[in-house]
Amino acid sequence: MRLDASAGGPSGAGLPARLVWLCVALAAGVAAIALGTATWALAQSPGPAPTTVGLALVCAAVASIAITAGAAACVHRLARAHVRTKASASAGQPVAGQQVEVYVGLARRLQGLVHREIQLLDVLEAQVEDPDLLKGLFQVDHLATRIRRYAENLAVVGGAVPRRQWSRPLPLVEVLRSAIAEVEQYARVRVVPPVEGTVRGHAGADVVHLLAELVENATAFAPPHTEVTVRARRVALGVAVEVDDRGLGMPHPEQDRVNALLADPGRVDVGDLLRDGRIGAWVVSALARRHGITVKLQSNVYGGLQAVVILPTPLLGDRPPARPPATEPGRMPSRGEPTGTATASSSMAGASPSPVGARHHPPAPPALTRAASPATAPAFRDAVASGQAPRDAGAAGPLLPRRTRQAHLAAPLTRGGPGPVNQPAGDHDPTLMADFLRGASSGSGEPPAVRAVPRH
Amino acid sequence: MTSHSMHRETWLDEAAGRLVRPYTVSAGRTRPTTAMELLSWVVATGVRPRGRLEPDHDVALGLCGAATTVAEVAARMRLPAAVTKVVLSDLVAVGAVLTRPPSPAADPTDRSILERLLVGLQQRL
Fold it and tell me: CB–CB of A125 and B6 under 8 A?
């Protein structure tokens, strides 16, 4: 198994690089024009889709393939330029940093074009009802999505900030599905539920591309009839995403080499890796380093390879949209999740506000329960410091003592109660409904307007 | 060439586009197994399929709690109508959703309905 990209460009810089870029830009232009024509043709004719649309789509598809190949070649080229930059810097020679900047600038232009292409596709897909035509559109869409991945990777490897950003935390399940959508054989990949938790919006695109690289690798080096599974589970350090394939695995010395690159790119001779065409590992390590993500490859029980990605707690959203059910006492609850506290204190914070813990002290008002928890208060402060104050303040309410309804009831009565009224006050969640609506609306791609604008 | 600043702008939230592309929702399928029209009625039967539903199927089933139309579900899920039909037809296949042909009153070419609408609008304006 190799972590590599779908195409590797010829080595060398200068004129060939510019030629590749010229071709990519031309292809992108053709794709945009073809899609524009298709939109126009559809708008002109109210009846069944004319042949113009079909022709335009074929053009767009061919152009998209050209862009994908070109962009992949350019990622390769940029990585090489990076290595040269480092090598020449260490040898005291003039730095080739300007070249990297040129590549990043071009990558941004490509990003802009692909973004427009995808916007056009959104318009077209909403209009087309013919299954055959839509199938063609989906193929173009899939190619465009993959081009976007390469373009964004290209910019990121060159040190640029992702251009697609979200101000809200993104549900992890959507991040995983988005990553799978960027893989050629996406139909072979299955997300194993449940997937809980969120990823902070600023890192969304990078996490998607990092996972896409690993999933692509898993699908590429396992037999075509096998499935690739993606799981997510909470761990002490954050959330672990595991990508399992059922391929032939990777020899241990090879695994060690790639793991060394993933852990510390400085220690490995990247030139060797790139000469073998393993730019995927390079991209993964660049993305991981930027966000403090840990990535490790290991053999799995199927004899294949498992890629474990640890998304650290600071990268996760403040809380997952779904509340943990009371029947799972061992799981980490969401509210106590700190944004920067040590592992030990985070597990303490996790134990305190859990439904089970709260049930042992039913008369305690929520404020006291929170104050008694040694780590939730710092966690709240951390949240304030990290700019999540309005959301958390809204969720937790003012820290004043509050009268608790039915707090005098004996513990067995409250334990068996079906409704939230019988729950002890420590377990009360005023944002449960809003979270539910937010989850539902984010599943449908609508903005989470519920929390921001109360109806009353 | 376009200006330099155009290549530096970031796309936030809505401008960033949808995170999950529509083709992933239906796993690339575009042909529903049950014939449906935009104004076909769909309603949940109350039968909960065994195993876990895909996230979008879950949302679609939730939207079918009361009888609604395919177009309404598509609009709420912000998905292309064809993809919504595939998702709904999956739910029909497992018995979680029932579908009925559109009611005659919903026929957009019904002249009398359009005339009544016109009269109503003229009275209001």
Answer: no
C-alpha A136/C-alpha A125 separation (Å) is 10
Q: Is residue B109 part of a domain?
A: yes
Residue A40: its pLDDT value, please? 74
Q: Which of B21, B24, B59 sits opposite A443 (nearest CB)?
A: B59
Report the C-alpha gap between A113 and A64 in whole angstroms.
Answer: 11
Residue ranges of chain A whose pLDDT lies below 70: 1-23, 45-50, 72, 74-96, 267-268, 270, 273, 276-277, 318-431, 444-456
Residues A219-233 pLDDT 10s: 998 999 999 999 999
A29 contacts in chain B (CB < 8 Å): none
**Nearest-CB residue to B23 (from A141, A445, A446):** A141
* ipTM exceeds 0.90: no
Q: What angle do CA A255, A259, A265 make, to 5 degrees?
A: 135
- Distance (Å, whole) CA A256 – CA A330: 34
CB contact under 8 A, A122 and B17: yes
Tokens (6 digits) for A79: 């990585």
Question: What's the total number of domains in chain B?
Answer: 1
Q: Calculate how close chain A gets to B55, using CA atoms only, in Å.
A: 7
Q: Identify whether B104 is part of a domain.
A: yes
Query: Hey, are the CB atoms on B24 and A186 less than 8 Å from each other?
Result: yes
Q: Which of A26, A55, A25, A28 is nearest to A40 (CA)?
A: A55
**Nearest CA of chain B to the CA of A423: how many Å?**
26
pLDDT tens per residue across span B28-46: 999 999 999 999 999 999 9
Residue A39, judged by CB atoms within 10 A of its CB (0-12, 13-18, 19+), counts as: middle
Query: Any residues with CB less than 8 A from the CB of B89 and at least 6 apart, and which?
Result: B32, B33, B34, B36
> Does residue B7 lie in a domain region?
no
Q: Per-residue pLDDT tens for A322-351?
A: 444 443 333 333 333 333 333 333 333 333
Nearest CA of chain B to the CA of A448: how many Å? Answer: 10
- Class of the domain covering A170-315: alpha beta
